[in-house]
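Hi U.,

Before I forget, here's the chain from the pilot set. I'm dumping it here mostly so it's searchable later in email.
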Amino acid sequence: MNHRECIAAILHYRPYDRLPIVHFGYWRETLEKWVAQGHLTSEEITELWDGNAKDQALAVKLGFDCNWNCNYGLNHGLVPAFEPKVVREFPDGSQHVLNWNGVVEVHNPAAQGIPAEIDHLLKDRASWEEHYKWRYQWSESRVNLAGLRELDAAQRSLPLGIYCGSLFGHIRDVVGIEGVSYLYVDDEPLFREIIDTVADLCYRNVELALRTARPGSFDFAHFWEDICFKNGPLVSPAVFEEYVGPHYKRITDCVRSHGIDIVSLDCDGWIDALIPIWIANGVNTMFPIEVGTWNASIAPWRQKYGRELRGVGGMNKTVFARDRAAIDAEIERLKPLVELGGYIPCPDHRIAPDAEFDNVRYYCERMRKVFG
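Structure:
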């Protein structure tokens, strides 16, 4: 069995001959650190992104088999995107920058991670009509029809998903978490219109892509949200269920009508309060199952929701910054979870800059020895 076949078997509770060693990419700073330490060359990380040839070459060098975050992209975003520009500069080298979503961020050359947001162009109906609504209009040009026709799953040994978009997380990115929360209260019709517009665009892209590609071209469907943090959702579950849930159902019904029965959802944080909404609306695979301070695991979810719930992730990546004993202990913790079936361990987010190159390689070696 190749990696693609093994992953399909695991997620469908069928026999398989080995557990693929899966990852979720790296922070850019991680790769740059490994270059500085001599483990990699600058050429090896230049233009590396999820699923491309350089990503796969690095996976092989480390010992991974594949990156789960490998999806056929469809343009669900702003067309055209805003042109990024510096709106203010400061003596310490930091800048206020308008990004491609129309959000003003603080860029500090000494900082790592996600930039702070200080202003959002989308504030009300007037700004929605002027700057955004027309940028979310659908057209066939959003979908690479020629590329879809060339897909041939029979020639592929690694899994490939179809990216179904983001039905709330992208909107949060554009208007901000405070902005989207106030919008629901201050202008509910606009709140609904924005969600409906973005979701319809996602649906039409997916429907055209699946109608164009050969049957069996995709191994799974995949959504992105990132709408939770360490204490729970950034949106009321009741609001999410009412306004967003039906759009999930429409899209997952579409992908299932084309033979895709694994539907993956990428959401960081403590997602427990939203899981029943996703399951009720056709999502059945949670990713990346961040262990965090709340000890997320597929085990209690499986006990509550049964075998319909699958998972990819749940491996505590912080052990990469520690030692081999910590890695061994983490692999032992994963053993009973793998035995549940329908679950593939994967670092619970992108590998962070504190990760040691040799520790990552050791993890892959041990996983292969333990799980075959």
